[in-house]
Amino acid sequence: MTTSGGAAVKSAPWKDPSARPYVQVDRVTKAFGDFKAVDDVSLKIYKGEIFCLLGASGCGKTTLLRMLGGFETPTSGKIFIDGEDMTGVPPYERPVNMMFQSYALFPHMNVEENVAFGLKQDRIPKAEIKERVATMLDLVKLGDFAKRKPHQLSGGQRQRVALARSLVKRPKLLLLDEPLGALDKKLREHTQFELISLQDKLGVTFVVVTHDQEEAMTLASRIGVMNHGEIVQAGTPSEIYEFPSSKFVADFVGSVNMFEGKLIEDEPEHVRIASDDMGGTIYVSHGISAPPEAIVWAAVRPEKIFMSTAQPAGTDNVVRGAVQDIAYLGDLSIYLVKLPTGKVVRVTQPNTSRHAEAITWDQQVYLSWDATSPVVVTR
Amino acid sequence: MNYKSSYFIITCLAFGFAFLYIPILSMVVFSFNASKLVTVWDSAHSPTLKWYYALLGNDEILDAAWISLKVAVINASGSVILGTLAGFGLARFSQFRGRFTLNAMTTAPLVMPEVITGLSLLLLFVALEQLIGWPAGRGITTMTIGHMTFSMAYVTVIVNSRLATFDTALEEAAMDLGARPLKVFFVITMPIIFPAILSGWLLAFTLSWDDLVISSFTSGPGSSTLPMVVFSKVRLGVSPEINVLATITITVVTLMIVGVSLWMARRAKLDKAAD
Prior knowledge:
- In chain A, the strands form four sheets. In chain A, strands 6-7-8-3-9-10 form a six-stranded mixed β-sheet, with helices on both faces. In chain A, strands 13-12-11-14-20 form a five-stranded antiparallel β-sheet. Chain A has a five-stranded antiparallel β-sheet with strand order 15-19-16-17-18, with no helix packed on it.
- Chain A folds into two domains: 13-95 and 171-248, P-loop containing nucleotide triphosphate hydrolases (Rossmann fold, 3-Layer(aba) Sandwich), CATH 3.40.50; 255-377, CATH 2.40.50.140.
- Chain A is α+β, with helices and mostly antiparallel strands.
- Chain A is built from eight helices and 20 strands.
- Chain B contains eleven helices and no strands.
- Chains A and B meet through strand 6 and helix 2 of A and helix 7, helix 8 and helix 11 of B.
């Protein structure tokens, strides 16, 4: 799991209130009949960003992307691109290009003709088209495939043709709908880094739709997590991962152990939660805003839990359990530890040593974590 | 049980094909018959090309064939244009009220008895002539319009069903790259659905070529099509020239179908590889 953003936005324009957003989505709603696919979404995306819309299928992320491209009209609200109101502007007049999930390569044209299509629409001189297409094909390493038809290419090559075709017009904003969805895992990882370096080289703003959280983590400068047509949280990958604002985000991005409990101590600089789920108390070294005795959830990431056979000091943030299952993944191992309360806790441990004293099935272990590790969410 | 070597299966197949092709085959054979009587094989002078030469000199049949060809080509081309537009409209317009009804209405001419279609067209043409003076009498124009009314329905169905499996992302991608909708249709949609359009053209051509009922209702003096001439001649007794004509027609149709099928099979293979 990568926890830091891979994208090349060095500054953080979203933190600067005076920065002008490049794309502004202003209270946009899209309804299909009674169903709201996108529900009152507001969003600011800045120049040079890779912004990922992350969510399960049917959460409205593709609809939002299609509204940016001009293929759907918002039921209410407005979209501004580079300060211009896009209401009523058709796709062929927007300074935006899109890479489709199916790639949508024209089957009756070869690679070169596919890439040149967009330039031909702008009546650019033939010689210039030729040169720009050749440059673009070299950039995506398809120079030798110019005369091939799409059906003569592999999945990865088609993906690169689609990318070249959408970039050759030098759009200010590129929309990518599940750009790597059709590729196998190895190729996907490789292509992710290629995408980032291309984006860096060309300075294009990317909006990427994906359901793959790892992809979002690797690519994005910021992630907008969507659920039921709403953006539930937007932030950098590490913000989303380390400071999820709700149960949904904590659970959707990465894996997490969620302990339900009651707030028994609520001080400005710490809180203590009594959790029946865990069978103990959780001490968190920061204050939260919740009414006293509220039901809250403490989320602890599997890699932030320590596991030992000796009892750690203290009574907070410690619990005993029996190892129920172990999955060895090479670089790390996942342990499922069953607590006396019946709850199963997921713990990951890096395999730093080749001959570590092996913790094995049915062994009694102690789980503990730092007071800074849990994230307390109220919804 | 192994059906591959079963005599039963082979017999079934042979019987089926015999039923389909023996009448046609006998007609082809009899086109080389020397006798004037179609049913009597003159073994002394056959086979001969006598009737083929005779046909070349038969102006009535040749004129009718020419008219049929003209009507069929104009009809096929017109039907393809109208049918493609209708099919595209029905497939692409978003869900609108009455779409189902419209869909059903375009396919209604397929099941409408031809006699009724023919009669209604005749009444319309007569009424129009009285009202606005057009069409002045009935002839090739009225016949072509008549053929188009039902051929177009077939083309609509073919194009519509092809577009149902068409990836609309292709059109969106073209639009996204700056092509206006009309251009998208001509540069992207039409080339890709071209096999369906060609099938529609061939079907419309064939329907028109052998139509008798609607032609009879909508034709005028001096505009008899081939089926009309053949039909009226047969009533007086089948002439060997008809056999010749039929043989030529079958040969041309067979060549056309084989050619188009080969071409389509090649394209289908490419399309399949593209998925």
